């Protein structure tokens, strides 16, 4: 096991997967391309043998489901086609493993150290623009979580320096951070975003393009909710750059994914 910036590689016979020290009280993992042939049942067994796995049908939106929703809809398998459409999954009952898959999009795992609730989020640029991460936090709060008890890990995703997008995408995502005044041009809105402290936007040599850090956008959204920096941790890995470990659609143009999951536990009294 090796450690870097609060993140550690856990070794198995199939390869390594990442864990985050902030989530150390919860079985969890950000898995790599080495586990691509394993089922969610297999992946869950690496975390906690008796936990029950759950997933959704990811659609790049901001729909959030609970494991109770899955039961209520009579879904008893992990087959993709029968899953509820959504991009975040919340559990408030113990020994449930919630999973999301990603390549360049941001996988977030959230745990409440007091209630034992957990959530898994798939945040691409579209879902980020629609506020899926703050909406998921708000759903956890509605179920009893308090902001100060949340711990959030943002897993491997494409880094800002490697994610080139058009100005329209950057501004669409940026609207989730600041309200733009009426009448501003696209370029003026972009300038407002670039002037933010810890801006998620950086320059690109190609006209009409910029670099966008989607993980940074999610971090800023969480800060707006009152989540403090010491409650969050960003994995020091880029899916585009670290080809040994991660699939990247931007790099390979092939739909292959790695999975990220976390297991809920009983509340602390």
UniProtKB/TrEMBL annotation:
It comes from the Bacteria. GO terms for molecular function: copper ion binding; hydrolase activity; S-methyl-5-thioadenosine phosphorylase activity. The keyword Transmembrane does not apply. It catalyses: adenosine + phosphate = alpha-D-ribose 1-phosphate + adenine; inosine + phosphate = alpha-D-ribose 1-phosphate + hypoxanthine; S-methyl-5'-thioadenosine + phosphate = 5-(methylsulfanyl)-alpha-D-ribose 1-phosphate + adenine; adenosine + H2O + H(+) = inosine + NH4(+). It holds the Pfam family Cu-oxidase_4. Keywords: Hydrolase, Metal-binding, Transferase, Zinc. Signal peptide: none annotated. InterPro entries: Cu_polyphenol_OxRdtase, Cu_polyphenol_OxRdtase_sf, Cytotoxic_necrot_fac-like_cat. CDD domains: YfiH. Belongs to the purine nucleoside phosphorylase YfiH/LACC1 family. Purine nucleoside enzyme that catalyzes the phosphorolysis of adenosine and inosine nucleosides, yielding D-ribose 1-phosphate and the respective free bases, adenine and hypoxanthine. Also catalyzes the phosphorolysis of S-methyl-5'-thioadenosine into adenine and S-methyl-5-thio-alpha-D-ribose 1-phosphate. Also has adenosine deaminase activity. PANTHER family: PURINE NUCLEOSIDE PHOSPHORYLASE LACC1 (PTHR30616:SF2), UNCHARACTERIZED PROTEIN YFIH (PTHR30616). This is Purine nucleoside phosphorylase. It comes from Pseudocalidococcus azoricus BACA0444.
